[in-house]
Amino acid sequence: MKKQQKIIVFSTLALIALFFIGGNLYKQQQSSAFEESGRKSNSEFIRAHSMSLGNEDAKVYLTEFFDPACGTCAQFYPLVKDIMKENKDEIRLILRYAPYHNGSDQAVKMLEAARKQGKFWEALELMFASQQYWIDNHQVRPQRLWQILTRLDLDVEKLANDMQDPALDELIAQDLADAKKLGATKTPSYYVNGKPLQNFGYEPLKELIESEL
Amino acid sequence: MSNQTNTAASWTLLFFAWGIATIATLGSLFFSEVMAFPPCTLCWYQRICMYPLVIILLVGMNPLDKSVLKYSFFFVAIGWFFSVYHNLLHYGIIPESASPCFLGVPCSTKYIQWFGFITIPALSFIAFSLIGLLLYLLKRRLNS
User: Fold this and answer.
1) For all residues of chain B together, what is the average pLDDT?
2) What's the whole-number average pLDDT of chain A?
3) Which of B10, B16, B20, B26 to mutate: most A Cβ within 10 Å?
């Protein structure tokens, strides 16, 4: 019986080791594949239409694919803001859309329309703060979001008009295509100078950014 | 055949069944956690049937306990049926609208296609079938 137990223990350890070694190899491979693409040169990370914040000559380009209806994105927003504040002028934040929830594209359109009136950040923060009111069981309720947005000092008619702009559909499609290409299937997905954040978490994100500073 | 050899051969059958279940389990976790392929609904049901086999068969091997067959049977059978259904869907024999998937990954999503035909549902079918076969052979051996 002892021999059999040894075989079991050995096999289990070998398989688990294989899993982790294989996992690490795969992740390294992914990471270096991304690094080769570089940062500013690769358009999957930044598009002309993308909303950005921060110094254009910043050392670190932080690309975030997010969904306005995503709870984790809302959680990370103030944390990212803190990182930006702590490292003024050294980080440029680029926001990309990955509207994966049902109806999220409507929220994105409202955001872009608010952006045209210079109220992008206010609208974004309001959306994040009020998620529980306009999201019902992972389903976006555009009417409710609309009502909440009208609290901001916005030209409501213009907002409604700008939302209908067909260019927005293209913009969203482009961002989704880029997200797909980069493997950003979950939100939020972070890329620091093109390197994907592989261990998800606030500390890992901070570490990755710091390693590029 | 002496009793010793009989037991050894039986144990080996069970060991291989366990090995397949473990590789299937780790493999599916590799796909979802490392390669970030989100599992669809049917995948989840098959995982629910496959993962416990790792423990059940392990315990049943140590020492060899005949009743392991009784406890593992339904997991293997149910998992096998799900994999059959999933494969029919995947290869287009059943239309997607008849499937239970919604909100996210459709069950017909083809993540891999090794050698032109090996997909993840195919791997699942192979795994459940092999485990079923090995346990069946074990049952015959134990009953003789």
Assistant:
1) 86
2) 87
3) B26
